[in-house]
Amino acid sequence: MELFVLVLLALIALFVVVALSRAVRIIPQARAGIVERFGKYKETLEPGLNFVVPFIDRVRYLIDMREQVVSFPPAQVITEDNLTVSIDTVIYFQVNDPIAATYEISNYISAVEQLTMTTLRNIVGGMDLEETLTSRERINTGLSTVLDEATGRWGIKVKRVEIKGIDPPPSITDSMEKQMRADRDKRAAILTAEGSRQSAILTAEGNKQSAILNAEGDREAAILRAQADREAQILRAQGEGQAIQTVFQAIHDGRPDQSLLAYQYLQMMPKIAEGDANKVWIVPSEIGKALEGLGSTMNSLRGIPDDVDGPRVRVPTEGVPGLAGAETGDVAGLRDAEASVAAAIEEARAASSEAPAAAVDGAGAADGGVAPHPEA
């Protein structure tokens, strides 16, 4: 009897332990437990410690509520221009309704895969190869829109769809490589030609700037030389003017008599006649009187009158131009000077008695130009 009681107690204890173990359920984080009672949905268990009725309630599924990433095998898709391309896709989705994901679809991952392939064929079938290769964003957007609408009733939210790769046929790949190689060669040739053109332009610009700078330098040098010549001429003219003013002042301060002026006039007459330009010059009628005064001066330079006999003495003549070094004892020299002066007097008288002598060319006669009087 006691043995029977012990066995019964052991069975009861075992039942209690089993019941407790089946009654307590621990749900991990980011999971959801679907509880069924007699095969019918009863409740959804949240993460943490949960209790169910043992032997009556059963936790059938644990649904992963995290965002999942599923990469599907490459799909063979025909483009609009009848070329077969291989497209590899990856989908990011999340279960937001564990009840719908459990009872609305048997295998939501397989359903998403098949729906993705079907939608991809529909989208790519309306594009040619070139558009397919360059319109990944358009394909991704189309897939996300269609999948999100279709999987909403399954309790699934499609977050994002990405195209991992689009592989055209090998023959098309070879043709594309050749085309890309030709395009690269063309761009290289264009860049080389553009570089040569830019180099030529820069060289020409440099030569032009150099020529401009050289021309500006030559111009500045010519301007400086012209300014230097002008300043030299101005200084020379100022010097000559000052010299003339000094001579005039010296003559004015020395109060020259008529004989000195006549002698200066005789010295200037050959220079006036030697000029290259055609001039008109007039001999004044008073020159005879001036030359007569010069003759008297010559007699006074002798120191004695013509009708006086006696010893000859030296007369200082250093101050008289043309007579420096002459001596009163040199009668022949004085006679020659007197003869020259007398001849000059006669020529002056003849010139003053006639019409004004003029050396006039065609242009001078037409203009009626007259040389200024020396005494002026």
Automatic annotation (TrEMBL):
Its protein name is Regulator of protease activity HflC (Stomatin/prohibitin superfamily)
Q: Does the keyword Ribonucleoprotein apply?
A: no
- Gene Ontology biological process terms from the UniProt entry: proteolysis
User: Which InterPro entries does this entry report, sorted A to Z?
Assistant: Band7/mec-2_domain, Band_7, Band_7/SPFH_dom_sf, Band_7/stomatin-like_CS, Stomatin_HflK_fam
| UniProt topology in membrane | Single-pass membrane protein
Q: Where is this region: Disordered?
A: 352-376
Instruction: Report the sequence similarity comment from the record.
Output: Belongs to the band 7/mec-2 family.
UniProt keyword Cytoplasm present: no
* SUPFAM superfamilies in alphabetical order: Band 7/SPFH domain
Could you tell me which residue ranges the Band domain spans? 22-180
Which organism's genome codes for this protein?
Answer: Nocardioides perillae
Q: Which residues form a coiled coil?
A: none
First-listed, main subcellular location of the protein, grouped into a coarse class: membrane
CDD domains membership? SPFH_paraslipin
Q: Which GO terms describe its cellular component?
A: plasma membrane; side of membrane
